[in-house]
UniProtKB/TrEMBL annotation:
It catalyses: XMP + L-glutamine + ATP + H2O = GMP + L-glutamate + AMP + diphosphate + 2 H(+). It comes from Lutimaribacter saemankumensis. ATP binds at residues 234-240. Pathway: Purine metabolism; GMP biosynthesis; GMP from XMP (L-Gln route): step 1/1. It is an enzyme of class 6 (ligase). This is GMP synthase [glutamine-hydrolyzing]. InterPro entries: Class_I_gatase-like, GATASE, GMP_synth_C, GMP_synth_GATase, GMP_synthase, GMPS_ATP_PPase_dom, NAD/GMP_synthase, Rossmann-like_a/b/a_fold. Residues 207-399 form the GMPS ATP-PPase domain.
Length: 524
């Protein structure tokens, strides 16, 4: 649990797929909240967390089932407002004396529905709802069971054809419960309900990046004292923001290690070094180990072997440089909140490994280092806002994600220096095109992959026999799912011409129109 001094809201997670979205909506309203799985929320936990309000998430279980998830009774006794969503509504009704029925009687509802208000005075919880001419609101339902009798003290504020108790409230106790999901995109006015809920609970919206920065700096100083910290800098947004923040807190007690594996984009290493060393004056070791990495990768074409080789070397190299920094006791990492949330999983066994992600996991234990993770409470867009607050250039903060194994996974088949050179140049032309056409910020990630195939072409009067490449551009929210970006044919044609004219070694350009799933974003 964090030690923040802000007003705190507790989200008790019952395993919904969209619990994180509740946290997102609240953070957008400048409310500090944390998600905790229901199993961890004991009476003692509630007392020490001291929430100003509580939200019960949705979840896949049925309250009718013996042993299904429950909040502790104490949650109802704290005297703070509670909002129950979907399964959270059913739990609340069930716990407080209402009735829930299984969804066998064709009352299960999935997808879009419309809620209408009941007659009678509208409490503040409905401020901003039912205002347009239609008098109803679109919501997103996803429930099997449904409430069949509300608990004593509750009243019905809104109904839908499949959910007669779509919005319910006990106004005296400030308990609210809805059958639909206000946090999802398909409940367009859902954020207003959260806003009404938190206003009722007395939140002042004190969660701002300026406040966060001050607090984070104080906490880093407290944690680190006069000891040395090392930070693995990748040039990505997360580690960069972490480094600048820590540097602001402890100055030269921070040393950054930038491992250059020779698989970076055109001029990337130089840009990172210049920015951090010259602009921010952060002590930085530029570990140019490209010979080592490219040497060890020679002859390897299996994607997993490539990833594992890079991961292993990265740890070795980082460890070598870090151990030269005298008195280092802490390792800084740009861990984000989505990596920290211990969500409830009902799926049982471990999920299948699609790709071994490259990270420095295990390093702190191996080196006896303690962790400094100043971004642990933030979502990605909050990290960007913090970067902005710290004065990092907008062009840097808005950069597309770049994977740890770098160009290695954009070079299917064997990696050679020649192919990497060609790939770097093609990628630079492609990104330049995207920027020139004003599309960079609309796209989540864009890059070129060089294919392990040569094709025949004709340029001038001569025959060419060069590499083919694939352009990739996707839209996404979190990289978990993605759609290909619908470039115009004019854009694609112009880009293909530029790449073939400007990059020696490529004579054919293709566009990858695979979504994820079934594809992945990277080619390996
Ligand atoms: P995939 O290819 O799995 O990628 O659809 C999803 C997102 O993750 C990035 N990615 C990585 N990032 N280390 C990283 O730091 C990795 O090993 C790695 N593999 C993929 C990828 O660029 C995309 O943004």
């Amino acid at each position: 649990m964090s030690q923040t001094s802000h007003d705190r809201l507790l989200i008790i997670d019952f395993g919904s797929q969209v619990t994180q979205l509740i946290a997102r909506r609240l953070r957008e309203l400048n409310v500090y909240c944390e998600i905790h799985p229901y199993q961890n929320v004991t009476d003692a936990f509630l007392d020490s967390f001291a929430p100003k309000a509580i939200i019960f998430s949705g979840g896949p279980d049925s309250v009718m089932r013996e042993g299904s998830p429950r909040p502790p009774r104490r949650a109802y006794e704290l005297g703070v407002p509670i909002l129950g969503i979907c399964y959270g509504q059913q739990v609340m009704m069930h716990d407080l004396g209402g009735k829930v029925e299984a969804g066998e009687h064709a009352t299960a509802e999935f997808g879009r529905a419309y809620v209408s208000p009941t007659d009678g005075p509208r409490p503040d919880f409905l401020n901003g709802w039912f205002m347009d001419g239609s008098g109803r609101e679109q919501v997103w339902m996803s429930h099997g069971d449904h409430v069949s009798e509300i608990a004593p003290g509750f009243e019905v504020l809104g109904t839908s054809p499949g959910a007669p108790f779509a919005i319910t409230a006990d106004l005296d106790r400030r308990f609210y419960a809805v059958q639909f999901h206000p946090e999802v995109h398909h409940t367009p006015n859902g954020k207003t309900l959260y806003e009404n809920f938190i206003r009722d609970a007395g939140f002042t919206g004190d969660w701002t990046m300026g406040a966060y920065r001050e607090e984070a700096i104080r906490k880093i100083r407290e944690q680190v004292g006069d000891k040395q910290v090392i930070c693995g800098l990748s040039g990505g947004v997360d580690s960069s923001v972490a480094a600048v923040l820590i540097h602001e807190a402890i100055g030269d007690q921070l040393t950054c290690v930038f491992v250059d594996h020779g698989l970076l984009r055109l001029n990337e290493a130089q840009e990172v070094v210049t920015m951090f060393r010259d602009h921010y004056n952060i002590p930085l070791i530029h570990a140019d180990e490209s010979e080592l990495f490219l040497g060890e990768l020679e002859g390897i074409s299996d994607p997993e072997t490539k990833r594992k080789t890079i991961g292993r070397l990265f740890i070795d190299v980082f460890q070598k440089y870090a151990s030269e920094i005298e008195g280092a006791e802490f390792l800084a990492q740009g861990t984000l909140y989505p990596d920290v949330i211990e969500s409830v999983s009902f799926s049982g066994g471990p999920s299948v490994t699609i790709k071994s992600h490259h990270n420095v996991g295990g390093l702190p234990e191996k080196m006896g280092l303690k962790l400094v993770e100043p971004l642990r409470e933030l979502f990605k867009d909050e990290v960007r806002a913090l970067g902005h607050e710290l004065g990092l250039p907008a062009s840097f903060i808005g950069r597309h994600p770049f994977p740890g194994p770098g160009l290695a996974i954009r070079c299917p088949g064997e990696i050679t220096r020649e192919k990497l050179e060609i790939l770097r140049k093609a990628d630079a032309v492609y990104i330049d095109q995207i920027r020139k056409h004003g599309l960079y910020d609309e796209i989540w990630q864009a890059f070129v992959a060089i294919l392990p195939v040569r094709t025949v072409g004709v340029m001038g009067d001569g025959r060419t026999y060069d590499y083919a490449c694939a352009l990739r551009a996707v839209t996404s929210v979190d990289g978990m799912t993605a759609d290909y970006y619908p470039f115009s044919h004019d854009f694609l044609g112009e880009t293909a011409t530029r790449i073939i004219n400007e990059v020696k070694g490529i004579n054919r350009v293709t566009y990858d129109v695979t979504s994820k799933p079934p594809g992945t974003i990277e080619w390996e």
